[in-house]
Inverse folding.
């Protein structure tokens, strides 16, 4: 490392510390640019999300009420005589 660079850097550090006023420190241009990019990204994501939601074609089907079985089928199912493999007649 160069000896002149080291001594020049050592002289600049105290100068920067003297000019720094803790009550006037602001984020500056870089902070504004980052904040603007975050805001733009949020706007773009919301716009894209709305576009994706509009693509969804969903129609909810009304729930079908369960139809009761006739009394004769209930009696056969309970007795076990009429099953899938049994024959009538």
């Amino acid at each position: 490392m160069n000896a002149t660079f080291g001594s020049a850097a050592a002289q600049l550090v105290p100068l920067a510390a003297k000019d720094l006023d803790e009550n006037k420190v602001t984020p500056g241009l870089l902070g504004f640019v980052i904040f603007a990019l975050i805001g733009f990204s949020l706007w773009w994501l919301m716009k894209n999300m709305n576009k994706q939601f509009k693509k969804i074609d969903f129609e909810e089907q009304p729930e079908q009420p369960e139809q009761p079985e006739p009394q004769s089928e209930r009696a056969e199912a309970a007795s076990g005589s009429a099953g899938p493999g049994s024959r009538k007649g």
Remarks:
- Helices lie at 3-19, 28-55, 71-79.
